[in-house]
Amino acid sequence: MIRVLVNGAMGKMGRTTCDAVTAADGLELAAAVDPAFSDSGAREAFGISGIPLYENLASCLEAEKPGVAVDFTTPAAVFDGVIACLDAGVHCVVGTTGLSPEQLAAIRARAESAGRNCFLAPNFAIGAVLMMEAARTIARYMPDCEIVELHHDQKLDAPSGTSLRTAELIAGGRQQQPDLPGPEGNAARGFVHEGVPIHSVRLPGLVAHQEVVFGGRGQTLSLRHDSISRESFMPGVILAVQRVAGLEERLVVGLEKIM
To answer: What is the DSSP string of the chain?
Structure first.
């Protein structure tokens, strides 16, 4: 039985993760952490009985001794939370995006010194991972492309971690670098990452959506993935929780690495 801590438990992804862990065979929801639990109304709204609720991660780590921590907090909080979990001897599954390359390097170093593993995925939806892998293959033959990513209006980071990861895979799949559209610095043409323009949309009513549009002589090809509900991410989250302890590397990025 894997004892699981969910950090950011009152957020939309965190709350859905708590339900998924509770329903999964071989997993036990050991505790939930969220600053919102300082309010009694939030504790009542959480709705899963018999689970220890903490507003402070350090207190939870000391009292509960979980095996795996799942982080769905915020870009501002995720780094410190992951470091604290690793130092406490807890494997980490991270769905919060916005970590810098320097922070990822620090997490890798801390995971190695702590002897614990950290798994990070920009997107836990199986369909989104397949879209990214297909984009890498297509980029070899159609290197000209742009990404449009659309998310709910409460998402704090832009571009999304999924779009940044997609751009990196596209860059790795290209055999030639296309000319970027428009003059350099033209913000209307998107945020350019790894030579791929990314356009971010934030609106109420959306969950998580991404389209990659490739263009070639006399033709276009489009890939699109839509997460209609946050349940789409849960099979990937549960898979990561089950496999994080057995990773061969201390830091692994991308759900495709464990599928």
So the answer is: -EEEEEETTTSHHHHHHHHHHHHSTTEEEEEEE-GGGGSHHHHHHH--TT--EES-HHHHHHHH--SEEEE---TTTHHHHHHHHHHTT-EEEE------HHHHHHHHHHHHHHT--EEE-S---HHHHHHHHHHHHHHTT---EEEEEEE-TT---SS-HHHHHHHHHHHHH-SSPPPPSSSTT-GGG-EEETTEEEEEEE-TT--EEEEEEEEETTEEEEEEEEESSGGGGHHHHHHHHHHGGG-SSSEEE-GGGT-
Q: Which of these is catalytic: 155, 193, 209, 225?
A: 155
CATH classification number, 2-120+231-257, choose in 3.50.30.50, 3.40.50.720, 3.90.25.10, 2.30.110.10:
3.40.50.720
Break the chain into its structural domains and give their ranges.
Answer: 2-120+231-257, 126-228
Q: Which of 91, 151, 193, 225 is catalytic?
A: 151
Active site residue 12: no
pLDDT tens by residue, 161-205: 999 999 999 999 999 888 776 656 677 888 999 999 999 999 999
pLDDT digits (tens, 9 = 90+) for 105-137: 999 999 999 999 999 998 999 999 999 999 999
Mean pLDDT of the chain: 94
Average pLDDT for 214-243: 97
State yes or no: is 225 an active-site residue.
no
Q: What is the CATH number of domain 126-228?
A: 3.30.360.10
